[in-house]
Design goal:
Blueprint (H helix, E strand, L loop, with lengths): L3 H15 L4 H17 L7 H12 L4 H12 L8 E9 L3 E9 L2 H14 L3 E2 L9 E9 L7 H10 L4 E3 L4 E5 L4 H10 L5 E8 L3 E2 L2 H15 L4 E6 L1 E2 L2 H12 L1
Parallel strand pairs: 8-10
Antiparallel strand pairs: 1-2, 1-3, 2-9, 4-6, 4-7, 5-6
Helix pairs in contact: 2-3, 2-4, 8-9
């Protein structure tokens, strides 16, 4: 899974910066509503809701806003009806993109994404043409400072159901989506608490460099700036040093 950790780290840093924007609240509110609608309003029995509530608290969302969003999801309060949709696309350099969205208007979202892609050198793809390139996985991000002995941690994680572990900061622990909640609880009991989420890992990657690499990251940035887009996954491979340089340029 070369390159995933570097990109995960940069996305984590970017998320911390985005937390200063009101836009992050819009995305979190939608996720809370959908999670509560699908699994109920109790985070103790709804792992998806529990995960997004942790993100909401990290972003300093008020308790009132969280509770109101949960009630909209459970139907206690009237609210918008958001639908989960995936879009498939191609970025410059032949990079495949898998886009997760929550929307109350499919036509509007498709039109907006088509415009963003066209403006940034990408194209919307036929359904099924990209999805097979990605594998749905559960992942837990654990700060490296919480793991004093990596070998001991790996043995514990594998015994608890981990399928793969990628060293770095954060350390990424992969498992099946169905095992994510149980694995997280087991690791947390042993002092290794971390952020859990569902991700889509590329089965193979496309190497991009120079201006193409910059165009790919600019396109992903533009897509994630759209309120309806929750997350974008790509099968690109960019050298760490070049990735750092491009992100510094984009953030500057």
């Amino acid at each position: 899974m070369s390159g995933h950790n570097k990109w995960a780290n940069i996305k984590h840093r970017k998320a911390a910066q985005d937390a200063k924007k009101s836009q992050v609240f819009t995305k979190l509110i939608r996720e809370i509503i959908v999670a509560a609608r699908e699994g109920g309003g109790d985070p103790n029995t709804n792992p998806r809701l529990r995960t997004v509530l942790e993100k909401a608290r990290e972003a300093n969302m008020s308790r009132e806003t969280i509770e109101r969003s949960i009630k909209k999801g459970t139907g206690e309060l009237e609210g918008e009806r958001y639908e989960e949709i995936t879009y498939e696309a191609y970025a410059p350099g032949g990079v495949a993109l898998y886009i997760l969205a929550l929307t109350d208007n499919k036509n509007r979202t498709a039109q907006e994404l088509r415009h963003i892609l066209s403006k940034n050198g990408g194209t919307l793809a036929e359904s099924g043409s990209v999805a097979w390139l990605f594998e749905r996985k559960g992942v837990i991000e654990i700060p490296a400072e919480k793991i004093p002995d990596m070998d001991e941690f790996m043995l514990l994680a594998i015994d608890a159901g981990a399928e793969d572990i990628e060293e770095g900061d954060p350390v990424l622990v992969y498992t099946s989506p169905e095992s994510l909640s149980a694995l997280r609880e087991e690791l947390a009991k042993n002092g290794f608490d971390g952020e859990a989420r569902i991700t889509y890992n590329p089965k193979n990657s496309v190497k991009v460099t120079g201006s193409e690499a910059e165009k790919v990251l600019k396109l992903i940035d533009a897509l994630e700036d759209n309120d309806d887009v929750q997350e974008v996954f790509g099968n690109f491979d960019i050298d760490d040093a070049e990735l750092d340089a491009i992100m510094e340029k984009l953030e500057g």
